[in-house]
Structures are given as structure tokens and as C-alpha cells.
Write a structure and sequence with these properties.
- The protein has 14 helices and eight strands.
- By secondary structure, the protein is an alpha/beta fold.
- It has an eight-stranded mixed β-sheet, with helices on both faces.
- The radius of gyration is 24 Å and the shape is elongated.
- It starts with 12 loop residues before the first strand and ends with a helix.
- GO terms for molecular function: ATP binding; ATP hydrolysis activity.
- It comes from Thermopolyspora flexuosa.
């Protein structure tokens, strides 16, 4: 595996968050593929119970076990894990209390589900704990890390700080003992330079504002901010002069109609109607371009690295996922 300089050298846990509808899971999957390229082994983790990873990779629903889901360019492997809170709690009971058999009995009584429902902080500790364990895990035979990197498809931006801030979340559950110690180990991973919290957004007002708010919350909580992935970016199709003319109401519909006639694309009233429809499209494109440029400037003020991923006309299938992974690598994010 050849060395390659990236913006995130030394980062082993990539947390991906974003407002709903921005393509957070898609970006997390593409980032995992990009990180695995060239012979690396990467684990992609989801915690929301939506089976989003299975949908993105077009595979059956994932069980609660690490399973290979893709081969990256250059021979790397992407494994995936859909964390189930109940199964994670059984693991926790066995690891710290030797109570797996008792845990199964508790599960039948519904006590495990009850515990994670009344204490959502415990649920977050279990989720982040399993992810942190994968980051730290070593092969007993070689002593090497099992995974070169772990990508966590985290909750949306509005909940991610609470989700990651496990030390605070567990404070009301336990002040001493295994739960507190476990939370402190998790915090040691999540708040370290080995972690980066990336944010996914669109060039639209609400997602950008939520991204800015999320960055402020992460910084206030002293959690490590990563990069901003601007998803579904449309190309600017027209020259600046045409955009400015449209915005200032100087787009010449008559001239456009004459051009359509000269090109034998339309004639008479049809040419005029088509020219008016095209002029309206140009105006809409100009307004959207103006908005997107303004949102880019706001994101630039954060000082964080920014990566632009194109809007795929055919939607995001498996081939599209590999295309996005290549774009991520070309921009130095992996």
C-alpha cells in the first residue's frame, strides 16, 4: 500500500453528520470507499437503525456483525456494521459484568429495551463505545490495527454533539464504575486528534445554516471539526455575462427568438413562446447560482476544508458511489 498525503493524515475515526436530506449516508459510504482505496481496510458504521448502508450498496439488510460490503479501487476492502443497541448492551454486560446469559433473560423481559429507552444517554454510550472499540482494536497475532480507518454515519447535525459528548451524557447514569470508565475511554477516542467530524450540506439556506450552527456547537464542546462536504453540486452552465443580464432584466427575448428561428428550431409564435420559456429558465438558473455563491462564501468563513461532490444525473447507484469516492480522493479528502 503506497503512502498518500491527504488532508486528514493521522485521522482514524471519520464521523459524518449533516441535515436530513443532504445525502449524509451516501457521502459516508463514498468516503469509506475513498479511504479504502489502494489496499486499506475500512469499517463503515451506522447507528440509526435505518439500514442506510445496505440501501446505498444495494445489498440485503445487515446483521449485527462486521461484514464485507465492497472492494475499493486498488484492492482495499470496505466492511460495514449496523449497530443494534440491544445487541450492543448484551456485549457490554458480558464485557464488564460477565452477564451475557442474564442479559438474554433480561432481553426476553424487555428490560434491555426499557433501560435504553429511559436512559438515552446509555444508548449513545453503547453506540459510540462499539465504534471506538473498532478504532482501537488490534489483531492479537500481529499487534496491528484491524482497521486503517473507521467511518461513522452519525445522527443528524442537530443531535450529533449530544451523541458524541458521551462523558456529559453518562454523568447522570454513573459517577464511578465500568459505565463511567467506558465513557471516558470513548471520549478519549472521540475528542482526540485521531477523530474528525465532517459535515455534509447542500448549497441551500437551511442546510448551510444548520451546518454553521453544528460547527459552532462542535467547537463549543471541544470536539474535533473535520471538513465540509458540499453535496449535489450543479455546474454553472452559463457565462457570467448571461447571468448578470438575466438578473438585471436585460435578457433579450426577441434576440433569442430570432436565434431559434435562424437555427430552424421554431418559428413564429412558437419561437416567441419557446424563447420566453428559456428566458425564465435562465433567470431561475441565475438566481440559484447567485444563492449558491452566497452560501459558498458563508461556508468559506468557517475556515474548514471544503469538498464539492457533483449532482449525479442518474441518481446514486453503486457506480455513482465509486464516482463520488474518486472525486473525494481527487480533492485530497482521502
Amino acid at each position: 500500500m503506497s503512502a498518500r498525503d491527504t488532508d486528514w493524515d493521522g485521522v482514524r475515526l471519520h464521523v459524518v453528520t449533516g441535515k436530513g436530506g443532504t445525502g449524509k449516508t451516501t457521502v459516508a459510504a463514498a468516503l469509506a470507499l475513498a479511504l479504502a482505496a489502494g489496499g486499506r481496510k475500512v469499517l463503515l458504521v451506522e447507528v440509526e437503525g435505518r439500514q442506510g448502508i445496505a440501501q446505498v450498496f444495494d445489498i440485503p439488510p445487515l446483521p449485527y456483525e462486521e461484514r464485507k460490503v465492497a472492494v475499493a479501487p486498488g484492492g482495499g476492502d470496505v466492511y460495514a456494521l449496523a449497530i443494534d443497541p440491544e445487541a450492543a448492551m448484551l456485549e457490554y454486560l458480558e464485557m464488564f459484568y460477565g452477564m451475557r446469559r442474564a442479559g438474554r433473560a433480561l432481553t426476553k423481559l424487555g428490560v434491555v429495551d426499557f433501560a435504553t429507552t429511559i436512559a438515552p444517554g446509555l444508548r449513545d454510550v453503547l453506540m459510540t463505545g462499539k465504534t471506538s472499540e473498532a478504532v482501537r482494536r488490534r489483531d492479537p497475532a500481529t499487534g496491528r490495527r484491524v482497521y486503517d480507518a473507521v467511518v461513522l454515519d452519525a445522527p443528524p447535525t442537530g443531535r450529533v454533539v449530544r451523541f458524541l459528548n458521551v462523558t456529559t451524557e453518562v454523568a447522570g447514569l454513573a459517577r464511578v464504575g465500568p459505565i463511567k470508565n467506558h465513557a471516558e475511554l470513548v471520549r478519549g477516542v472521540v475528542a482526540s486528534p485521531e477523530t474528525a467530524v465532517h459535515l455534509v450540506t447542500l448549497l441551500e439556506e437551511m442546510p448551510v445554516q444548520e451546518t454553521l450552527d453544528g460547527i459552532a456547537e462542535l467547537r463549543a464542546a471541544k470536539l474535533p471539526t473535520g471538513g465540509i462536504f458540499i453535496n449535489m453540486v450543479r455546474p454553472e452552465e452559463l457565462p457570467q455575462s448571461a447571468l448578470e443580464a438575466a438578473l438585471k432584466g436585460r435578457f433579450d427575448v426577441e434576440e433569442l427568438a430570432l436565434g431559434l428561428k435562424a437555427a430552424n428550431l421554431a418559428d413564429g409564435a412558437e419561437a416567441r413562446a419557446l424563447a420566453e420559456a428559456l428566458a425564465a429558465e435562465v433567470l431561475e438558473h441565475a438566481r440559484r447560482t447567485q444563492l449558491e455563491r452566497r452560501e459558498r462564501r458563508l461556508l468559506a468563513k468557517t475556515g474548514l476544508p471544503r469538498y464539492e461532490l457533483p449532482l449525479l444525473a442518474e441518481g446514486v447507484d453503486l457506480a455513482g458511489l465509486y464516482e463520488l469516492a474518486e472525486v473525494i480522493r481527487e480533492q485530497g479528502a482521502a
